[in-house]
Amino acid sequence: xQESFLHYIWKNQLFNKRQLQTVAGQPIEIxxxxxxxxxxxxxxxxxxxxxxxxxxxGAVEIHVKSSDWYAHNHQTDENYDGVVLHVVFxxxxxVLDQHGNAIPTLLLKGLIKPGVLKRYEALxxxxxxxxxxxxxxxxxxxxxxxxxxxxxxxxxxxxxxMVLALLEQNNGSWDETAYQWLARGMGFKTNAEQMLCLAxxxxxxxxxxxxxxxxxxxxxxxxxxxLNVDLNDSYANGLKEEYLFLKQKYNLKEGLSYNEWHFARVxxxxxxxxxxxxxxxxxxxxxxxxxxxxxxEEIKNLQKQLQVETAxxxxxxxxxDAASSRKxxxxxxxxxxxxxINVTVPLLGAYARYTANDTYMEQAVNLLSAMPKEQNxxxxxxxxxxxxxxxxxxxxxxxxxxRFYCSNSQCIACNIGAELIKQ
Length: 423
What we know:
alpha/beta
């Protein structure tokens, strides 16, 4: 039994309400179930109830067991002083308010409509990773699509919240934030945080003071710590010499160390010694990164703007002191699409929230709709279940649906699961 299921039952009043009584025998009449509170504090606020002939307006707190009140330390939280009814599935302990009086408790066990409870339990006992997979075809198309869109917006908002947190650290500078967010995206998961730290150690104002690609590379590689090893490579030593001069000129703080970067079990195309030159090339091509991303409307134009050529040295090397016959010059098409999804879209979502202008959110969604779907095991699983995946709009929404609902068995919080249980 999940507490979220009981929230659903209370919110939709899916239980027998005839001759309701508290565990102490006080008659209850529910005049208004209250408003579902998704933030800190009691689960439902502004409920209107009649308990033992007296009308109350206050909060309703819901638990699987009444003893959860103490397990969650509500007895020490003043936010719960206004609770007028405690709704539980099992009553295993009397709960007292701050004055030592018993809080009226409603026991739902035995009252929930049998069909609803049976369908919920059957769904929760499914052995599949996607619990509703055998019943997915029974869900209305409009329900599936509305949940997909809801999940996509949640995903954009979660990522945009990270952008806004970064913006606050940067004292409201969108240019600095866009630069740092791009650097993080260039880390492609494995070195994402390292790339973010790198960008934070070399402010964009110093990068933009130099128009030569070599100097931008020197600043980034020097701060990365990847030059702080014995190298016989003239190109690397030249960057190191350039960096030592610029470090003193700009009074730069110490950056990262070599050992912080991940090379093991990473494809050569994703080596930090490849991604850093690509970042430098992007910074050389675009001095106004924020404007590039925020004005992005045509997907083909944005893809073209993100195409870059790195210094000639990197067409024959993946690492310093190690020549390679495999050429990696610039970003691949899949890497560019990844940056649009994970850099451009969250920036647009963040700017939409910052300016309270939904136009930028629409722009983000339109970009995803115009992009090809992502290829991974989660997307394939949805396709195998018969879900039509035609764009990044679909794949991003389905990734969110799987990771934040299916993987956590949050079926009751999902429109799809809720429809199956209520049928």
